[in-house]
Design goal:
It comes from Oenococcus kitaharae DSM 17330. 36% of the residues lie in helices and 27% in strands. Strand 8 and strand 9 form a beta hairpin.
């Protein structure tokens, strides 16, 4: 088990990571979500040892130095574009001695990727797939990937997802994925950590949080002025003519009664997903922008 305890980091006198504590096991995929600039990449750099923490630490039940069990590649395009996949495997092996070059080359060939072309000549999807292969064949117990599915087409995204799931089930690897695609995480993550202002705001199992989050999503047919309950308590997600989809935070029986008493012609409760949990968590940010005068948004 990887243990992160009271990890804290300031950058340019700003507290970016604020006493973050959690543990992570092998054999699971953990999603890390949060708004841009909230500290996800900084957290990965602290876990991998690229940054030194101001306080707190990272430890493992299985090794004296936990960071020898971690694979994290920061800003890969900074240097990987100058090399071929075959060259990168040997470069990575210096930092990750357990990397299996033969297995790496086999997976590259199996996925119809070139071994000897420079990465700069490949598509974003091909480069992303090669780097995920490097992570898996490094034989690290814990892999941290920053937006690994971002910008990939459907076929490549499915290939990457399958590789990650296989690594977890076959090799008992622990994987943490930073992502903005919460719906995608709902389908592959065993657990989701939501970070806000440098702190862990929520740590939940997909499906479990949806039942206890006190968030409701309603489809409502509204003619004329919006009901007061929608203005005061709702966040409008969609509008098509008179049909609205509205998210309600801190939903309880009193709010349910107010919605029922509203002048909506039709009301139907819709399933809630992780995107909705994210929106509810950052509800004040949405309302701040909505409240700003036109021309200053």
């Amino acid at each position: 088990m990887l243990k992160i305890e009271n990890l804290t980091k300031k950058l340019e006198n700003k507290l970016v990571i604020d006493h973050v504590t959690f543990s992570m096991q092998t054999g699971q995929i953990v999603g890390l979500v949060g708004r841009n600039g909230v500290g996800k990449t900084t957290l990965f750099r602290l876990l991998s040892g690229e940054y030194l923490s101001d306080s707190g630490g990272v430890s493992s039940d299985d090794a004296e130095n936990a960071r020898t069990q971690i694979f994290y590649l920061d800003a890969p395009d900074n240097f990987t574009n100058a090399y071929s996949a075959a060259q990168l495997a040997r470069i990575f092996k210096v930092s990750y001695p357990k990397l299996d070059v033969e297995w790496f080359e086999s997976l590259v060939k199996t996925n119809n990727l070139p071994l000897h072309k420079k990465m700069s000549s490949l598509s974003k999807g091909q480069r992303g797939l090669i780097l995920v292969i490097a992570a898996i064949t490094s034989k690290a117990r814990y892999i941290f990937l920053d937006e690994p599915l971002d910008g990939l087409d459907l076929i490549v995204r499915d290939q990457v997802t399958q590789m990650l799931i296989s690594a977890v089930s076959d090799n008992q690897t622990g994987i943490m994925l930073a992502s903005h695609n919460l719906r995608e995480l709902d389908t592959i993550a065993d657990r989701i950590i939501l970070i806000k202002e440098g702190r862990i705001e929520k740590d939940y199992l997909p499906g479990e949080e949806l039942e206890t989050a006190n968030v409701a999503k309603m489809q409502m047919v509204i003619e004329g002025a919006l009901p007061k309950v929608v203005i005061e308590c709702g966040h409008i997600l969609e509008k098509r003519g008179h049909l609205y989809v509205v998210l309600f935070k801190d939903y309880d029986s009193k709010m349910a009664a107010r919605i029922k008493r509203s002048k909506a012609k039709y009301i139907e409760e819709l399933p809630v997903n992780s995107d909705d949990i994210f929106r509810a968590t950052f509800d004040e940010d949405y309302r701040l922008r909505q409240a700003m005068p036109k021309g200053r948004q």
